[in-house]
Amino acid sequence: MRQLEAALKAAGDRSRTRILKLIETRDLCVCQIQAVLGLAPSTVSKHLSVLRSSGLVEDRREGRWIHYGIASSGENPYADGVLALVRGALDRDPKILEDRRRLQEVLRTPLAELCAVMPVQSVSVPSASRRGRGARKAGRRDRAHA
Amino acid sequence: MRQLEAALKAAGDRSRTRILKLIETRDLCVCQIQAVLGLAPSTVSKHLSVLRSSGLVEDRREGRWIHYGIASSGENPYADGVLALVRGALDRDPKILEDRRRLQEVLRTPLAELCAVMPVQSVSVPSASRRGRGARKAGRRDRAHA
DNA sequence: CCGCAATTTCGTCAGATGGCGAAATGGTAG
DNA sequence: CTACCATTTCGCCATCTGACGAAATTGCGG
User: Fold this and answer.
1) How far is residue B50's CA from residue B129's CA, in Å, rounded to a whole number?
2) DSSP SS3 for B16
3) DSSP designation for A57
4) Which residues of B touch A4 (CB under 8 A)?
5) By Cβ atoms counted within 10 A, which residue in A14, A84, B61, B89 is the most buried?
6) Pick from A12, A17, A96: which is nearest to B12 by CB?
């Protein structure tokens, strides 16, 4: 019962549903997800943690980034059902479509630049020299220039 | 998106899942559900309202009682999926089995007596005269003796 | 080893949620 | 029409949740 409840609760949140729809076709690194959602890194991390502990997603370390993808471990017996439900849904939802469009932009930027710049509306790095402190939207590292 | 979220949220609560499992084989009146769950009438009513507005259940008036059953109206396009998921789950869950056992007891009592007595542990009316004020557990009508 | 930078954890805050009892509602039966 | 009683609504409280920023952690690259 706990597991069904966890899976349903995990999927039953707007931000987490968006995450699930984002990673349903390919694994994504946290900073990519964050760039698309436009939420604070800590918030995204929390959501991913909820999704992970409910068995809906898995993390896989790739070099210096952590990629998240749909779970395949079958740790939660209800995960498949919930994931199937979500997978078959929302493919015409405006918000989801917008996220996908945004993802396309994000995917054009190499990880190394993306994470440092955190472009939320305009992904094109404004050529602000090397990894500029010009365009970040979701703060952090704001004291790094001191 | 709102509808998927609503359906998942509605089903992703312990008490509401129990309700869904209870009415999945036959419609039940509110007081029957309340007797099995052991929650206050107002609480059960709230849960039913959430389930109803998410399109998972429907109410049907039957004489002086209101029966709730699994929705068939297709008002929420995701309801069927969520309901199927729940229907196929928890059939071995201890709490659910206990609820079912409890339901068997409750079903033995005619509605007219059940609602007035509200037996939560022992369904057998302790022959406390006519619709006694002896066994109720989930209060209300406590000031009726004044 | 050191430092950097991606990610997570912690602390906090506002708003949502689940539970209850009391009071309102509304349909049935007299 | 009235009274009754199943159900709902309302107001309240405790707890949970989602969001943030700041600080801790962790793993690569030097």
Assistant:
1) 37
2) helix
3) E
4) 17, 85-86, 89-90
5) B89
6) A12
Of B1, B11, B96, the CB nearest to A8: B11
Q: What is the pTM of this model?
A: 0.82
In chain A, residues with a C-beta closer than 8 Å to the C-beta of B4 are: 17, 85-86, 89-90
**B23 to chain A, minimum CA–CA distance in Å?**
17
Compute CA B95 distance to the chain's CA centroid, rounded to the nearest angstrom.
Answer: 14
Return the structure tokens found at B91: 């059939």
* Domains of chain B, first to last: 2-145 (1.10.10.10)
First to last CA, chain B: 51
Count the alpha carbons within 13 Å of B125 in the hemisphere toward its beta carbon: 18
Nearest CA in chain A to B16: A5
Structure tokens at A127: 């050529």
Distance A107 CA to D23 C1' (A): 30
Residue B135 near residue B125, CB atoms below 8 Å: yes
A89-111, pLDDT tens digit by residue? Answer: 999 999 999 999 999 999 987 66
CA B49, C1' D10: Å apart? Answer: 15
Rounded average pLDDT per 10-residue block, chain B, 146 residues: 97 98 96 96 98 97 91 93 98 97 90 54 38 38 35
Quick: pLDDT tens for A105-130: 999 876 666 665 444 333 333 433 33
Distance from A131 to chain B by nearest Cα, in Å? Answer: 36
Q: What are phi and psi of A83, to 5 degrees?
A: -65, -40
